[in-house]
Amino acid sequence: MKGKLFWASLLLISISWIVNAFYAQSKMLKEPIFLDHAIYKPVQHRDYLTFYYLTNANDDTSVSNVYFNGIYGYVIDDESSDPIQTFPHYALQKAMVELEVAFDYLQDGPLSNDEIQVTFSDGRGMTAPIGELTIYEYDTLDYTLSPKGGSGGGYWSMNWYEVEEDVTIEKIELNLSNHFAKYVTVKLNSPSIARAYDILNTGKETGIKLADLELPIALQEGENLYINWKFDPKLSGFIESSIVISGTTASGKPFTEESLLYSQQPYLENEDVLKIIEERENAK
Amino acid sequence: MKKAINLLFWGYLVVLVRIDFGLDVLPVPLGYFIIATGCKQLEKKYPVAQKAWGFTTAMIFISFPTIFLDVHQQTHILWKTYSLFIMIGQLIVVYFILSLLKDIVLDYGNSIFSQRLKLMTKIYIISHLLYFTASTFTLNIALDDWLFFMTIFMFVILIMDIIFLVLLREVRKIATNKKVDRC
C-alpha cells in the first residue's frame, strides 16, 4: 500500500515542479529594468550616483560599472549583492557607483542623458533607460542662505537655513520635469512668510505651498527659513535633485541656493512591480 | 551481514557530506558506489537488495556533476531541476534501504525495533515528500516569504538523515545477534 502512494507522490511532485517551472519561466524578464530616476546633481571629481533596477528573482549578478557621456562609474564592491526587496518572480536591486569626472570636464555646461550603458558582473551589458540624469559642475557654496541642518526619513523632510543678510527671493524652482514634479509637495516657512500668510505653527508639515507663494518675497537677516518637502508614496522611482532658490541681497548681490530634494529608497509592492514591467513592455 | 550494513552506513555518510576543495572531497558517486557494494552483498538473502543495487548504481552516474559544483546553490532553472531530481533519487535510495532493513530486522525477530523502524520510515518519507512539494512552489513565491520556512524545513531534513544513519548503526548491532528461526 505504502509503495504505490510513494511513487505516485513522486510523480505528482515532478509534475508540480514542471508546471511551476514553466510558469516561472514565462514571467522572466529578458533584461533588467531600471526604475524611473530624476537625478540632477552637482558633482565633484569623485562623486556617487545611486540607481535602482528590477531583475529576475534568480539573477544573482550585480552591476559592475556604468557609462554615460564619456564618464565611467564603478561599483565599489564592498557590500553584498542581496536585493533590497524580493517579489514572487523579481527582485529590486540597488547599485551605487563612484563617478570619475575629469577636473574641468563639466566646465562647458551640464551633461544629460536618459539612458546609461550598464555592464554586469557576468559580463553582459545593456543600454538602460533610466529616466532623467543631469550632472553639472559643483559650484562653491554661497552662504547667503546658510544651511543649518535638516531632517529626513518618514513622510516629510526639512532643510533649514539661516538668512545671513536681508534678501529678496525672486525665484524658486524645482530641478525636475513635470513628469516627476507632480510627485513632490514643497512648503516654505519662515517668520516673514508666516506673517504674510497667517501661518501659526512651525514644524515639518507647515508652511505655504510653493504654488501658493507669491514672489518676490523679502526675508530678513537672522530669520530661519524652513523648506519642507514630501513625496507622493505612489512614486515608484527615485529622485535626487534640488530646489533652486535665487534672488538678490539687500546689497545688490545676486545669490542662488540649491536645496537638496531627494526621495527615500524606493519601496514597491508587487502590483507596482508588475505595473512597471507592463509599462516598459508597452513602451517597446 | 555486519560488513554489508557498515558499507551502507559509510556510503550514505559520503553521499551526505560535502567538503569543497574545488572538488567535492567526499564525492557523491563514490558514496553510492559503496552503498551499491553493500547492497550486492545482501542480494542473495534479500531480494529487495537487488532493486536497491540497481537504482543505487544508476545514481552513481546520475550524480556525477555534483563532484564539480554544489548543484543545490545554483540559480539556473535547469540546475535547480537537477538538484531536485537528485534529491528525489537520494530519497528513493533511502526508501529501498529502509525496505531492506525492514526485511533484515524481521529475520532477527526484534519486534520492538521493527515497530520503531516502521514509524521512522513513515516519518522520514513523509517529511521528505512534504519538503519536495514545498520546494516546487518556491519558484513562484518571493524569496523573503519562503526563506525562513524552508530553512527550518531543511534543518528538519538534516535531522532525518542523522536519524537514518543512527538507525543503520542499530540494525548493524541487531544483525550481529543470532538469527531467529522462522517457520
SSE class of chain B: mainly alpha
Please describe the biggest sheet of chain A, giving its number of strands, its sense, and whether it closes into a barrel.
13 strands, mixed
Number of helical elements of chain B: 6
Binned, the helix content of chain A reads 10-25%
Beta-strand content estimate of chain B = under 5%
Whole-angstrom Rg of chain B:
17 Å
| Tally of helical runs of chain A | 4
SSE string of chain A? HEEEEEEEEEEEEHEHEEEEEH
What is the compact description of this entry?
The complex is a heterodimer of chains A (284) and B (183). Chain A is α+β, with helices and mostly antiparallel strands. Chain A has 4 helices and 18 strands.
Protein model, in words:
The complex is a heterodimer of chains A (284) and B (183). With 284 residues, chain A is α+β, with helices and mostly antiparallel strands. Chain A folds into two domains: 106 residues, Immunoglobulin-like, CATH 2.60.40; 118 residues, Sandwich (Immunoglobulin-like). Helix content of chain A is 18%, strand content 46%. In chain A, strands 1, 2, 3, 4, 5, 6, 7, 8, 9, 12, 15, 17 and 18 form a 13-stranded mixed β-sheet that branches. In chain A, strands 10-11-16-13-14 form a five-stranded antiparallel β-sheet. The radius of gyration of chain B is 17 Å and the shape is globular. Chain B has 183 residues and is mainly α. In chain B, a hairpin with a 1-residue loop joins β1 and β2. The interface between A and B is medium-sized, with 26 and 25 residues.
